[in-house]
Design a protein that fits this description.
Layout: H1 2-14, E1 20-35, E2 46-61, E3 65-76, E4 85-96, E5 99-107, H2 108-112, H3 122-127, E6 130-140, E7 143-150
Antiparallel strand pairs: 1-2, 2-3, 3-4, 4-5, 5-6, 6-7
Length: 155
C-alpha cells in the first residue's frame, strides 16, 4: 500500500497543474446602411439600421482553450419592440500558434474579419451575426489559410 501511495504522490507532483479562469467579452456594433435606389434587379432598395449587443461569458484554461456562451441581441432603429432578433452564441475556441480552431455557434466577426467586405452582402453581417459550424485556420506571419463550414441551413 505504501508503494502505491508513493507512486500517486510522485505522479501528482510531476503532472502539470492547470486552472480555469472566468473570462468575458462585451461587443456593441451599430450599423447604418443606406441602400435606397431604384431600378436595380440585383438588390432590394432598403435602409438597414440598428444596434447589436453581444455579451459573452466563458471559461479559459491553459491560455489556449476557451468555452464561451452568450447571445447577440439586435434592435432595429425605428422598431417598437426592444429586441428584434437574437442569436445564441456558444462555442469552443482553441488559439495556439500557428493554429486557430472554433466550433459551435460562433460570432461571424471571428471568422470573416480578414475577408474583404465585397465578398459578403452587408445584410449578412447585420442580420446573420453567427456562423453555426466550425472554423480551422493556419497562419504564419502575415499569411493564413482558413477553412470554415456554416451549417445554418436557412435561406
Amino acid at each position: 500500500m505504501k508503494n502505491y501511495s508513493l507512486l500517486i504522490l510522485l505522479l501528482c507532483a510531476v503532472l502539470p497543474v492547470t486552472s480555469q479562469k472566468l473570462v468575458w467579452k462585451a461587443g456593441v456594433n451599430s450599423f447604418f446602411e443606406n441602400n435606397e435606389f431604384s431600378g436595380s434587379r440585383i438588390q432590394n432598395s432598403q435602409t438597414m439600421a440598428g444596434v447589436h449587443l453581444a455579451p459573452e461569458i466563458g471559461v479559459s484554461w491553459d491560455e489556449q482553450h476557451r468555452i464561451f456562451a452568450g447571445a447577440d441581441v439586435m434592435h432595429e432603429f425605428g422598431s417598437n419592440v426592444v429586441i428584434d432578433y437574437y442569436a445564441p452564441v456558444i462555442y469552443y475556441a482553441f488559439e495556439g500558434e500557428p493554429f486557430r480552431f472554433y466550433m459551435g455557434a460562433i460570432p461571424r466577426k471571428h471568422v470573416l474579419d480578414r475577408y474583404p467586405r465585397m465578398f459578403f452582402q452587408d445584410s449578412i453581417a447585420n442580420y446573420r451575426p453567427t456562423i453555426t459550424g466550425l472554423v480551422w485556420e493556419y497562419r504564419r506571419n502575415e499569411s493564413y489559410l482558413n477553412v470554415w463550414l456554416d451549417w445554418t441551413s436557412r435561406q
